[in-house]
Amino acid sequence: MMMELIAEGSTLTQVGMVALPLVGSVLLTYAVFSLVKDLRKVETRRVSDRLRENEGGMTDQSVEKATRASILRQKHEAESAIAAAMAKMSVIAALQRMLDQANLPWSASRTLIHLIGLSAVAFIVTNFMKLDMWVSISLGVGLLVLPLVAIFIRRKMRLNKFLNQLPDVFELMSQALRAGHSLPNAILLISQQLPDPVRSEFARVFHEQNLGIKVEDALRSMAKRIGMMDVSFFVTAVCIQRQTGGDLAEVLDNISGVIRERIKLFGMVKALTAEGRLSGWVLLALPMVVFVLELVVNPNYANALLDTEMGNYMLIAGAIMQILGLAMIQKIVNIKV
């Protein structure tokens, strides 16, 4: 039975050696084509910006220029057939939302194609260099997964920072409304007085309503883009007040107080679950540390995993199980507040 599994593994390896170079070549060609196309668009955009400059040499602020560009960016661009077909997939929609939440002006379909092409090229190059199969697979998977992990971490940090800024946003907005400002002017004040990421999001809302979109629709778009319950509460309160009337400043003060209490409670939960989160990282690092020590202390024993095909498969399976275990522990200690 073991010999049959090894034979099947060898067959899959041979099929991969034939199919992956073809797939990698196609994706590499498309990646180079997309890169050249993007560079040409950058040059065209620079020329257009230069032609639109005022005669007095006045330039817009970087925040405003970035906000206006984000409103008109890649969602309505004419894409290739491959990118257009991939855009219909739910995975691409989720990735595009993650890129928007991370404030990265990239197209999800192109990003995924580039990552797959880079992973395939790395796998092919390492095979031509006669490296072990587990090295090729690990490098290919790493180049595909690690950028996505970096995007996820950037998104999470930005959303956490946005959440911590929300009480100040609502307090400043309520004070502006009590001082006699309209809602659009209060939004403009927030985009001018507070730092990112609140500045960029509310600046986008202000510029969208300047372009003719209703304030309610612009706020709903922000709530959908951010995907946070607290922002949805705020948008719902604004929409109800715009339809039925009432004291929006008082409502914003109440929402601000609730969010501050939720942030305090989340801090307490995070402190109480710190031991569980640390245990997950320790359990992830411990097998790797033991394996490295075993390579130093008893190389003949540890090299059985490196020099044999079955050992390579066991290493890959162990790494996958370690990552799944860490994900399960993080899921357990991630308590919703």
CATH topology of the domain at 159-266: Receptor-associated Protein
Structural class: mainly alpha
Helical content stands at over 70%
Q: What's the pLDDT, averaged over the residues?
A: 78
Number of strands: 0
Compute the CA-based radius of gyration: 26 Å
Give the biggest sheet: none
C-alpha end-to-end distance: 50 Å
Shape verdict: elongated
Order of helices and strands: HHHHHHHHHHHHHH
What is the CATH architecture descriptor of the domain at 159-266? Up-down Bundle
Counting DSSP H or I runs of 4 or more residues, the number of helices is: 14
**CATH top-level class of the domain at 159-266:** Mainly Alpha
Q: What are the low-pLDDT stretches, counting only 5+ consecutive residues below 50?
A: 1-9, 47-60, 74-79
Percent of residues in β-strands: under 5%
How would you sum up this structure, described in words?
This protein is an all-alpha fold. Among the domains are: 159-266, Up-down Bundle (Receptor-associated Protein), CATH 1.20.81; 273-333. Helix content is 83%, strand content 0%. It contains 14 helices and no strands. The chain is elongated, with a radius of gyration of 26 Å.
